[in-house]
Amino acid sequence: MNTTPHLTEPEETPEELEALLAAATSAAADWGQRSPHERADALSAVADALDTAGHDLIAEAMDETGLTEGRLTGELKRTTVQLRMFAEQLRDGSYLRIAVDRQDPDFVLGARPDLRRWLIPLGPVLVYAASNFPFAFSVAGGDTSSALAAGCPVLLKAHPGHAETSRKTAEVVESALRTAGAPEGTFALLTGRQAGVTALRDSRISAGAFTGSVAGGRTLFDIASSRPNPIPFFGELGSINPAVVSTDAERERGEQIAAGFVSSFTLGAGQFCTKPGILLLPRGSELPKRITELAQEVPPARMLTSAIAERYRERTAELAAAQGVEVLVHGTEHADPSGVPQVTPTVLHAGSVANLLSEPVLLEENFGPCAVIAEYDADEDLREVISAVPGTLTVTVHLAGQPDEAERQQVSDLVALATSRSGRVLFDEWPTGVAVTPAQQHGGPYPATTAGSTTSVGTAAIDRFLRPVTYQNAPEFLLPEALRESNPLGLPRSTHQPGTSQNWASPQ
């Protein structure tokens, strides 16, 4: 039994927290009114500075987290790529979705005023760093870069699991922003559990963003929602990410599926939000035996923190004790020089779908290298499981061959159901490894996230920190530059000229 105490973190004093909040509030108007090109240059400067400091930052993160140099090198690259992608998005300008409807006395519904709509930043954003990504979902990660791109100052609540890495990364970010001309208070680091709660309650914070546990995220979401002035809270909480394998897929590439599943659910010691937690196989499948063999070969991997290891230990025991569950692979726990345990995978077999559904605990996320297998008899079994699964980030479907018309309809029905329960539906791949692209959707119905209509990965993440404003019959000199008739910033816009709406009327 590991007895390492839970991580402690220094608390900002009330005076220090007040200074950070005041600085962010002061910076909001200035940073939000900077042109998209100016903010783009600042984000690019941050990316360049992180690249320059990369060697030292990676070395620090290796010491604190036990993650490998290769993993952290790739993660830091992802972080700087995200920053540069948002910079490119700012330079393009279409993210503002500017629409101009010019005055039209003959509009089909009656005289139309001059209307000009665009998106503006919400204001200071409080970002909570994640435990499992010390770069990509931490100080300069996706939430920070998308909020800064939107024009929102960021207060970053550091995660105690990589406190020194966070401090050094924050120094790089602050220095780069300052050199690029960003106002003081555009970005700052804060520490302490209570400081993070107090800041969220402060009326000067306009939005929150979080990646972590269901319990922690729900507590913060409730605080954000119950304030006298409620604010949006974009929390990524917990996800089971079920995967379905068809009979034909197993027959065609069973070995590949078994190896891919084991690699995916044990990646990073299973501490990825997209880890496939449930595998649904056809009745009588040979894959559980092969998965067992492969999982037993996986070497021990370090958990991120003692607190996460303790919760994983408790959850795994709870799952193993559920009715009808057979433990195919008993995970082990090993001492680590850091005091944080190393663990090997656990594989559980729930038996039938009926038994899986009778034990709701089996449908909940277990953050670590543990997975549950169940066997289905018919397509209806699959529909019942997907319907019962809480909102999830992903659903994976493994198919094979060319299905006939009846099979196509069955798969289509399953995919439609999967779409209603998740934000990303994958085919013949595994959900770990989230591509950072404009088309990515990293979100889903609760409890996967608290805002299923948004994403925390990809350039669409900027939408979370913007809100629309329309100016009606505004004098030209009072309009923001982006909305003026002369369009001095050269930003893209959609325009409706007088007389262009007549085709909206029903034919006489």
TrEMBL record:
Protein name in UniProt: Aldehyde dehydrogenase (NADP(+))
Biased composition (Polar residues): 494-508
Annotated segments matching region Disordered: 485-508
Top-level taxon: Bacteria
SUPFAM superfamilies xrefs: ALDH-like
Pfam families to which the protein is assigned, alphabetical: Aldedh
Keyword field: Oxidoreductase
CDD domains: ALDH_KGSADH
Domain Aldehyde dehydrogenase: start-end pairs: 10-393
